[in-house]
Write a structure and sequence with these properties.
Blueprint (H helix, E strand, L loop, with lengths): L1 E3 L12 H5 L12 E3 L2 E4 L2 E4 L4 E4 L3 E2 L2 H37 L8 H25 L8 E7 L9 E7 L6 H11 L16
Antiparallel strand pairs: 1-4, 2-3, 3-6, 4-5, 7-8
Length: 197
Amino acid sequence: MAAYYYKSNSSSSGYGYFSSLDPFSRSLEGFNGVLQDGSMVSQALVLDNEKGELVKAPATRVGKKGMSEAKALAALKSHSEAERRRRERINAHLASLRGLVPCTEKMDKATLLAEVINQVKELKKNALEASKGLLIPMDDDEVKVETYDNGSGDETLSFKAFICCDYRPDLLSDIRQAVDSLQLKMVDAEISTLGAG
């Protein structure tokens, strides 16, 4: 079969040779084909060798379907790329978790996650037990003074003072000035910090 294309240059009414073959087709100015369902369908006349006459070839869509196939291919490629990046992120996070877990053996993802969950539960339990053992004063600038027997048997009077306050740059020098103003001799000093201060 040989293919021949026919372009109608008929009157402004828009009907030409194709309208005699297909009553539903229209030839629009500058447009070769038929509009069906909002997409362009190109039409061709093919010479039938057996009959020796021109017949319409099967219509081929050029419009929406061709464009939608390209869009579908691009969307599939984009989705595949996004999925690959997502898997890479998950595997990077799993590698970080493997570094945090004390086990040295290679383990699958489910075992790794179970081990991490157990470790977090253990850390929470340890933190709760540690916080129960600490007596953290809640009042600002808490001071407690009590008498202290050093066991020497002499007439000296000793005091033990506890001070709890927020840290500030001149704290130690202020405490030293307060003790000196009382004309007391400092025998021993212990300093400890709680929290991030």
